[in-house]
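Here is one chain, start to finish.
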Amino acid sequence: MTPPFTLGRRAALLGAAALLAAPSLARAAAGTGLPCPARPGEITGLLLQGGGGPSGAVAVFGQAFRPGDLPAGHVLEARLTNGGALPVQLDIRNRHPDGSARLALVALATPALGQGQVAGVMLSARPGQQPAAAPPQAGGRQAMVEVTGPGGETWRLDLLPRALAGRLWQSGPLAAQGRVETLVPPGAAGGVTSLRLVADVSVHADGALRLDAWFRNDVAMRPGGGSARYTAQLLLDGKPVGRFDIPRQSQYTAWGRLFVSRPGGPPPLVRQDPGYLADAGAVARYNTEHGVDEALLASLGAAMAAPDWATPLGARQVAQDMYQPGGRADIGPATQSQAIWLMTGDRRAAAFAIGQAEAAGSVPWHHWDPTGGDGKGGWLDVRRWPRLWTDGRGGPPPGGLMQPIASDTGWAPDCAHQPDLGFVPYLLTGRRAFLDQVQAQAAWSVVSQWPAARGNPSNSGPGEGFNVVRTNQVRGAAWALRQLDNAAWASDEGDPNLPYLRACSEGNWAWLRSRIPVWTREQGEVHGCIPGTYGARGMLPPWQQDYFASTAASAARRGNPDARYVLDWMSNFLVGRFLSKDKGFDPYDGAAYMLAADPGAGDGETRPLRSWAETARAMRAAGLSNNGGWSKSQGDYAQLALQSLAALVDVTGSADARRAYAWLSSAGAPFTRPQDFRRDPIFSIVPRGAGRCG
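Its structure:
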């Protein structure tokens, strides 16, 4: 029996090793700073950190744009801030309603930069059409996969000609990228019919050949599915780059690696401006001023040095029992390592976040319907399967999966504690496999909900059939909607999954807006809380409202009018808990672990008492009040409240939210000092105006 990665950890982690080859950008760029736009047509600045590659080495990354910054009929230009123009290729993935680019893949021919050297680049728009140019040629190159089953049957596929013969994901003078999707024959897959190979193959003008190969055992609702057993070998230009023994891959899981063959050193690492990405609606507005403790960064590097990091289907420090509560490093608007990557550009954080995005494939929430989408394949869609529930209680089809999720996968996914492992890595790298992960998780966020709560798609009314908010925990609704919004926002125009994902996202926000008149009457003066289930009667966890506010703010930034309406409505509660002292409510209780709530709500949902004064009396009577201190706020609850207030300032410009933010920032609440955010920056989110180019 061959070891699981016999050709060495270095081959299996080529992408991460390249990222870690040079010093951290947080140190190397000290005193340099991201370039800020100053002239007409300038859009955003980048920093390139050298990895020792030659002049002309092609760097590929994802880039979000603000509405109107790159209009139709304009081309993208790139120029060194202390030099000349750089060749650039733009492949637009989707557009804003005004026709301007929203999300794109950018390929950049970079200057020669030694390890630790940094160069600034400015991206600009000018009117014109990109001149036609032939893509890089693949003559004589080879990307091969070999899969051998336990009985010795070997299946081989030459990927490159197939990848470049179809619709290209990238097509231009610097990079050509295409995809191969095919079933692995049962004899090579250990007898199952559910294993797919999904491979993205790229040829670059600098001579690099890239293979992002994924083994997705995710075909659902078809006979013959089950656990796969096989050995996979990947070859580039005839040379083995990875060999992996997979003794058991559970159904509904995936794993993959990026392999690169290039004649010289790697291109520079690209750091995007996090403030601009926030302006574009891509991410929250992270604080770039506090920095991150070196000890935290070193711990990420140490985790990646552990031998089990390279093993396919490993967890890579993602919580496998997702029912675990508490201040986890993988739960928030983004994960901890993603936040660090955005804030600092540190190579260790980037490599760690990319590694966890790969590990997301191990979670059994990948359900591929071969006749879904446009009829050629798509993630499970409750419009096609209205009674489907992936929980084992769903029973046989059409109520449940044809092959139930195995109980011994090592994973326990939970909607209320699910991390978003794929969106930020897709946003920053443009790796298409990570978009697959975002879409799969978003689709699971619907089919994992009890159908009676989702509603009947034949009923009239918004969101019916795919409601992820009704009777859910508020945190579960927050994270499910986060996934749906991110998937709908990021998906490629023309993607067969996009209409469904967009309908789920928009339908849920429309449903939420439709409920606001009723909720306002029920909640009275304290209105602004999303109802949800919670285990303790008469208790309302305000931090779950803060979770939901982060999702509402994200959707509002992206232009969803219903989400903006919901966020404006929530602000009465989110802000009022800190500005209602004259009504008898202690502002220190605004960040308490629990608020006293209506104990008589008979529908199983938690909602607030109807006035601030009544809430204050009930808080004191139940022993929940901070009483002018912070004894009931010993956790990240004040951090969560701060990020809600920052988002309200950022999105709505609310003067009251700014007053509340200023008070809470200076009130000495637990874990709100700069050193606290340096040690754990996952919620280090600030209002507009705090960023460098803000």
